[in-house]
Design goal:
Number of domains: 1
Shape: globular
Number of strands: 0
Structural class: mainly alpha
Number of helices: 3
Radius of gyration: 13 Å
Largest sheet: none
Strand content: under 5%
Low-confidence stretches: none
Distance between the termini: 26 Å
Length: about 45
Amino acid sequence: MDVDKMQTKLAVWAKDPDFRFDDIYNLLYDRDWLRRAYQSVAANSGA
């Protein structure tokens, strides 16, 4: 799963007042999404 692409899509959707995040639960609890997010955070040495 391409996290950057998904973040871009989410940002666009969030700007649309008529868009409903009906299935956001399934996205946030997707194992691939969580694994990639963890790897990204774990690799970040901080600001």
